[in-house]
Task: inverse folding
């Protein structure tokens, strides 16, 4: 694994193996040194933050789409236009995420932030077009 920017899904199984190894070592160690810990420098430090970013990105997508639908419904007063607009936002999101997957990217910190920004821009664009229509 030599890449500190590797995705959480790649780093976590390795972390678990090392953590298990350290727990076994601590069980068999003398009482005075049973508090050994493992560290990998920069490899482990962002794992929990990265998982939080990924969770926030997926929750953000769901909240943004739901909230945008309500705003569109209120602004246009037309449920068909609102549904079509939300489908357009969904297509934009799926297209960009598909390109990320085709390029072999995993949803890490940078990608999570980019997805949230992309949602904001696509919703903003679609809301203005729908409201003008």
Result:
């Amino acid at each position: 694994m030599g890449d500190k920017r590797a995705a959480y899904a790649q780093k976590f199984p390795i972390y678990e193996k090392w953590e298990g190894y350290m727990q076994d070592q601590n069980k068999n160690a003398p009482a005075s040194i049973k508090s050994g810990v493992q560290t990998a420098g920069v490899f482990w430090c962002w794992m929990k933050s990265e998982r939080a970013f990924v969770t926030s990105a997926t929750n953000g997508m769901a909240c943004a789409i739901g909230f945008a639908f309500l705003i569109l419904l209120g602004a246009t007063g037309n449920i068909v236009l609102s549904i079509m607009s939300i489908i357009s936002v969904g297509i934009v999101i799926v297209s960009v995420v598909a390109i990320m997957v085709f390029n072999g990217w995993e949803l890490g910190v940078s990608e999570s932030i980019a997805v949230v920004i992309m949602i904001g821009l696509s919703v903003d664009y679609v809301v203005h077009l729908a409201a003008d229509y």
